[in-house]
Amino acid sequence: MKNIKEKLLIICLLFISFYALLYTFKPFTHQKTVRYLQDFSNSSFSYQTSMNGEPSNEAQYLFKKEIERQAYKFPDVYFLEQPAAKRKKIKQIALTFDDSPDDWYCPQVLRILDKYKVKATFFLIANRLKAYRYNAEAIKNAGHLIGNHSFAHQKMTEMTTEQALADLALAEQEFVKYLEIQPLLFRPPYGVMTDEQIIELGIRNYKIINWSIDTYDWDTSRNSPEEILARVEKYAHNGGIILLHSSGKDRENTLKALPLLITFLQKEGYELVTLDKLLLVKAF
């Protein structure tokens, strides 16, 4: 009987030791963090299926998930598409162009938009404004919306927050000097920035705008006019923001695809609008 009691005592001690060790090595999880991650994983933003629908490698997939996380975390500052609460019965979508101005592709894009009576949003690189002031003014005078695409198109995740704010200040000076405007819509180069940078820009009344539909017109391995159009046809959705480029590199395929995708969107009943109208935010 004594032996049985001793064995039971040993078993009990072993169980107690096991659970003590389990508790000791249990990873720390904050209740709010767990709830946030659960909410995010169950969220139903349309850009989770439409944004970057064809990531070709792990880096692009991780980028997709990161900007989705930031849009969920900073819903009043950071946008990938029109918030569902702001959507109207009429379908709206926004064309956005990065990397202007220049003196070759940008004027051709403007002519196409004028032909189809479409207004778009252009995110301009500020250190190009002096050299291509005439073309930047042409964008403004045609009634298109202008956003800030940084001073020199450097990746913000490779900057400290102080360096990013200094870059922003330089860009602001150039916009005031050459266009007499102070854009409050900001698209970070390559679409990337840190949470701290987002917070600091939000304090300064900026809105961070990325996109929900990547046409991949920047990717020479898959940017034929037909491929660009096919992505718009597949992923177009009410409240969507379409990423295109109007400068920087060879944009001939973008020029060829642009009339095709505008025609498609108009036939599908979309109203093509600038970002301030899509998001109902202050642009300047």
TrEMBL record:
Q: Biological process GO terms, please?
A: carbohydrate metabolic process
**Where's the NodB homology domain?**
91-273
One annotated GO molecular function is:
hydrolase activity, acting on carbon-nitrogen (but not peptide) bonds
In terms of PROSITE patterns, this protein maps to:
NODB (PS51677)
Q: Which InterPro entries match?
A: Glyco_hydro/deAcase_b/a-brl, NODB_dom, Polysacc_deacetylase_ArnD
CDD domains (alphabetical): CE4_NodB_like_6s_7s
PANTHER family listed in its UniProt record = GLYCOSYL TRANSFERASE-RELATED, POLYSACCHARIDE DEACETYLASE YHEN-RELATED
Name of the protein this chain belongs to: Peptidoglycan/xylan/chitin deacetylase, PgdA/CDA1 family
